[in-house]
Design goal:
6-stranded mixed sheet; binds flavin-adenine dinucleotide; Amino_oxidase; Amine oxidase; Zeta_carotene_desat/Oxidored; oxidoreductase activity; 7-stranded mixed sheet; 412 residues; FAD/NAD-bd_sf
């Protein structure tokens, strides 16, 4: 059906996947507002290769992502590494990966640890629908006590949801725990690509372009209007539109209103350091209050030798616009807190994404939109495939889903 013209708005994983699974069959044009493709999965150069602008890894169960990696002949690059976790409390990195480490953790009583363990074991048994209207905070405090919430979940929720941490739903939290508790403990096995996820984006882009699709970078979709047989995007007529951006922003451009979505932004600083400040840990949630919710030691996950410098991320979330002077605040705090001298910081840069993901607040579950509403196809971080954990897998699944629906409806 080469005579069907499709416009895809956004070239993140959802948009690129939709194009990849529709290629050769239709005329496809992708509109991307930034100068490069990849969206939240974009990368930047370091002296020895690429590193993601936002920390990324994947899981053994991410079957669509793994199949895509294989289809794109990147299987040789796939590697499984150990991801350790900990908390930064009272100025110290406390490891919390293995059972002995959890037993030794001094900020929870034995009884609290027992209640936390029981919650993890029972996570798969809760009726998730009933938990959609309950906040994670109220639920945890009731099930495990305030101590477990304050010592364990509050820093974790803060690192994931910033100022919305006490509004996210118990349905979201429990669904996430249920997924994660199926995975192995004692250092989670996490997936990565040897040359970074840049190779995934590069390969996807090449396949799409080779098939005749067009990618317009530096080209935001600015105006959407209904035409007799389809939609105008920036004045050009298309038979079909696939929207992958925040539905609220899409509506502001003239697209249909499909509901209220609250997104949060991410401000993520990447630094190159001369030494490791995390005692070998990969993911450290900040229990101590800081202008970032987690410190992520990329080179405590991926071998240090690959970059020849210690790479860490400082992760923070915000609503609306990023706080004024965030880069300076993060840097100053990080230097002081981890006693870093100026010459131990080789470089730093910050990446800001205002639409880094929907906030899964109470009531979210019932608002998840369908994949096709009023003639527009929707695939993105807001899609069902990305609930309860927005992920690369979820955005690929959403892109593939709408591609399948279109292929079925317009098979000629
Ligand atoms: C900090 C962070 C860490 C993450 N870590 C992980 C992880 O470890 N593992 C994992 O699986 N997932 C992770 N994710 C999630 C994963 O990155 C996303 O689910 C996925 O990349 C989203 O793809 P998408 O295409 O749905 O959205 P996006 O990547 O947001 O793509 C949307 C695209 O639309 C473009 N756009 C916006 N407005 C317009 C417009 N008007 N016109 C044209 N283009 C527009 C944007 O520039 C962007 O390129 C993380 C995300 C973040 C933010």
């Amino acid at each position: 059906m080469k005579n069907i013209n499709i416009c895809i708005i956004g070239s993140g994983l959802a948009g690129l996947s939709a194009a990849y699974y529709l290629k050769y069959k239709y005329n496809i044009e992708i509109f991307e507002k930034r100068e490069r493709t990849g969206g939240c999965l974009s990368s930047s150069k370091t002296k020895n290769g690429y590193v993601e602008d936002f920390y990324h890894h994947f899981f053994e169960g991410d079957s669509l992502l793994i199949s895509l990696i294989e289809e794109l002949s990147l299987k040789e690059e796939m590697e499984w590494l150990k991801g350790s976790t900990g908390y930064h409390v009272n100025g110290k990195n406390e490891p919390l990966t293995t059972i002995p480490e959890i037993i030794r953790y001094p900020y929870m009583t034995f009884y609290e640890k027992f209640r936390l363990g029981m919650l993890t074991l029972r996570a798969g048994e809760y009726d998730i629908e009933k938990l959609d209207e309950v906040t994670a905070k109220d639920f945890i405090e009731k099930e495990c006590g305030k101590g477990v919430y304050n010592s364990f979940f509050e820093p974790l929720l803060r690192s994931k949801s910033g100022e919305y941490s006490d509004k996210v739903s118990a349905a979201w939290l429990i669904s996430r725990i249920a997924i994660r508790s199926n995975r192995k403990s004692g250092g989670e096995k996490l997936g990565y690509l040897r040359n970074g996820f840049e190779s995934l984006i590069e390969s996807l882009e090449k396949e799409i372009l080779d098939s005749g699709c067009t990618i317009h970078t530096n080209t935001p979709a600015e105006a959407i209007t209904k035409s007799e047989n389809g939609w105008f995007v920036n004045g050009k007529e298309f038979d079909l539109v696939i929207n992958t951006i925040n539905p609220k922003k899409f509506c502001q451009l003239g697209g249909p209103n499909i509901g209220e979505f609250i997104y949060q932004g991410a401000a993520c600083m990447t630094l190159g350091l001369k030494r490791d400040v995390l005692n070998g840990l990969y993911w450290v949630n900040m229990k101590d209050k800081a202008p970032y919710g987690a410190v992520i030691g990329h080179t405590n996950f991926v071998p240090y030798e690959r970059y020849d410098e210690h790479i860490v991320y400082l992760a923070s979330y915000f609503s609306g616009k990023p706080p004024e002077g965030i880069q300076e605040q993060m840097l100053t705090d990080f230097k002081t807190r981890f006693s870093l001298k100026d010459d131990e910081i080789l470089w730093n840069r910050i990446f800001i994404e205002e639409d880094a993901g929907p906030v899964y607040m109470t009531g979210y579950r019932s608002k998840i939109p369908g994949y096709c509403i009023d003639g527009i196809y929707y695939a993105g971080m807001f899609s069902e495939a990305n609930y309860p954990e927005r992920s690369m897998e979820g955005s690929i699944a959403a892109g593939k889903k709408v591609a399948g629906m279109i292929s079925e409806a317009y098979s000629g």
